[in-house]
Design brief:
The chain is α/β, with parallel strands linked by helices. It folds into two domains: 287 residues, 3-Layer(aba) Sandwich (Alkaline Phosphatase, subunit A); 239 residues, BPG-independent phosphoglycerate mutase, domain B (2,3-Bisphosphoglycerate-independent phosphoglycerate mutase, substrate-binding domain, 3-Layer(aba) Sandwich). It has 16 helices and 19 strands. Helix 12 links the parallel strand 13 and strand 14. Helix 3 packs parallel to helix 12. The two termini are 16 Å apart.
């Protein structure tokens, strides 16, 4: 029997002599669980994980790439992330991703020849808002600098930057390494008579950069700070960061409170006003979507108040994203760089084959097993065949409850497998990534032990159902919890001897494990592979012949 791809007219033939397994083909993604140095700085290794250890000991496994060019990023020095990782897992091919697309648009100049760029440069004041670092996960400071320089070249007289400090994709207290060169560049532009300055700022996990509607209050704090000038006043961004560090020696850049740069009279230097142009310079969409909705005034919860503290109406501005962050909602309407056009995904082929699927994760990663996995589509291809289940994440400090919603995800997954309704099940355990980002080593170890309990239950359910389990990760994080000294290759320490915490993703490979009690599937290990090779493995395990232009399958099947 052939299975038509409803979006392209292509067909997927069944592998001759092969039927689908009795139970579902399950893809389990351990978010942020890479293969590290296997030492005392590796929370994945330190954790007591008997079920995962047994799975590795008894099942074929290998390592695959989850960063850099393997997932469409500019170079192999670029960390992978959940967005590009899940794109690759669902697409079966490597697509140029946000950072690379923006770099190319800047290099060729195509970004600056668009009508939207021209309109932005003609506004009263041009504002840039975004994550200020070189983490290259959500943004890159070099791209911001290129846009500032071009704006200056194009005659923009007044420009303001609203900085979101990182501490998550880069070292936890590194914001001054980015603030200082930004302030230097802005001063250089002012030498010619322009008025360029930093206007406001705050930590990425305190203001502006919420995702999946987990905490709209974050977006509100950012909106009030950037637009209405609500925040603690300082005379420069450097003074703000320095003061906040001194007041709280333990605070991470992620969580810095909102601050506003004011003049000698205490008046904010850069409130966003009527007639201004605004660019959100993050290229990754998940944490850029809600603030974009706020600026466009649509798809907002009714409780979100855009008025100012004294009842001022929201300003009428020209707003543009660096990219369009949701192609289905068309948010934002205006953007500077076209996103990757990902077609013919795993979800499309399974739907065309009439194979019911079930996708589940808690809120923090729900969009990754749905939107990103389905090629940046926010709706199922066929609601009669695709079931999406979101488990609401807990509010509050993640490290205080490292179990997150893993047990609830495990229970719902178990029910889906035992129901016999689905030919494909995919799930994401967010713990390794989300707890790893906090830098709390003990909490991350505990998170891995909780995930291990869930994997143990999953293995049993797959075995009992007659299914197949493919276990992998989307990138590393929990596998390296401290910064490494590039010269000595030891862990960096402060003068006190305490290790310097690492809160960002890693460049480590991730595991791929094949659990097939039937013995029909064999692991392919003859050539290097990345996350994109997993897609063909799911199709092969289901009994479908992967498309010729897909990356080769990580498994083969015996008739």
């Amino acid at each position: 029997m052939d299975s038509s791809d409803h979006s392209t007219g292509h067909t997927l033939a069944r592998i001759p002599g092969i039927s689908a397994p009795k139970g579902p083909v399950v893809l389990c993604i351990l978010d942020g669980v890479g293969w590290g140095r296997r030492d005392d700085g590796d929370a994945v290794y330190v954790a007591n994980t008997p079920h995962i250890d047994q799975l590795f000991a008894s099942s074929p496994n290998r390592l695959i790439s989850a960063h850099g060019t393997a997932v469409g990023l500019p170079s192999d020095a670029d960390m992978g992330n959940s967005e590009v990782g899940h794109n690759a897992l669902g697409a079966g091919r490597v697509f140029d991703q946000g950072a690379k697309l923006v770099d190319e648009a800047i290099e060729t100049g195509s970004m600056f020849t668009s009508e939207i760029w021209s309109s932005l440069t003609e506004r009263r004041c041009l504002h840039f808002i975004g994550l200020l670092s070189d983490g290259n996960v959500h943004s890159h400071i070099d791209q911001l600098f290129a846009m500032i320089k071009r704006a200056h070249h194009d005659g923009v007289k007044t420009l303001r930057v609203h900085v979101l400090t990182d501490g998550r994709d880069v070292t936890e207290r590194s914001s001054l390494d980015y603030i200082r060169p930004l302030e230097a560049l802005l001063r250089t532009c002012c030498d010619s008579g322009a008025d360029y300055a930093i206007a406001s700022g705050g930590g990425r996990m305190h203001i502006t950069m919420d995702r999946y509607e987990a905490e709209w209050a974050m977006v509100k704090r950012g909106w009030d700070c950037h637009v209405h000038g609500v925040g603690r006043p300082f005379h420069s961004a450097e003074k703000a960061i320095t003061a906040l560090y001194e007041e709280d020696p333990s605070i991470n850049d992620q969580f810095l409170p909102a601050f506003v740069i004011v003049d000698d009279a205490g008046v904010p230097k850069g409130r966003i006003q009527d007639g201004d142009g605004v660019v959100f310079f993050n290229f990754r969409g998940d944490r850029a979507l809600e603030i974009s909705q706020a600026f466009e005034g649509r798809h907002l919860p009714s409780a979100f108040d855009r008025t100012g503290p004294a009842g001022e109406a929201p300003p009428e501005v020209l707003y543009a994203g660096l990219m369009q962050y949701d192609g289905d909602l068309l948010v934002p309407h205006q953007y500077l760089v076209e996103p990757p056009a990902i077609d013919r995904t795993l979800g499309e082929f399974l739907t065309a084959a009439k194979i019911p699927s079930f996708a589940i994760a808690e809120t923090h990663k729900f969009g990754h097993v749905t939107y990103f996995f389905n090629g940046n589509n926010s709706q199922p291809f066929d609601t009669s065949l695709e079931t999406w289940r979101e488990v609401t994440s807990r509010p509050g400090a993640i490290e205080a409850a490292p179990e997150m919603r893993a047990f609830e995800v495990a229970e719902a997954t178990s029910e889906a497998i035992r129901s016999g309704k689905y030919g494909h099940v995919r799930l994401n355990y967010a713990n390794g990534d989300m707890v790893g980002h906090t830098g709390d080593f003990d909490a991350t170890v505990r998170a891995m032990e909780i995930v291990d309990d869930c994997v143990g239950r999953l293995v049993k359910d797959v075995r009992d159902s007659g299914g197949v389990l493919l276990l992998t990760a989307d990138h590393g994080n929990a596998d390296q919890m401290f910064e490494i000294d590039k010269k000595t290759q030891g862990y960096k320490t402060f003068e006190t001897g305490k290790r310097q915490v690492k809160t960002s993703h890693t460049l480590n490979p991730v595991p791929f494990v094949l659990f097939d009690p039937s013995g029909r599937l064999q692991l392919e290990t003859s050539s290097p592979a990345g996350l994109g090779n997993v897609t063909a493995a799911v199709l092969t395990a289901t009994g479908l012949q992967p498309p010729e232009d897909y990356l080769s399958s990580l498994v083969s099947i015996t008739p």
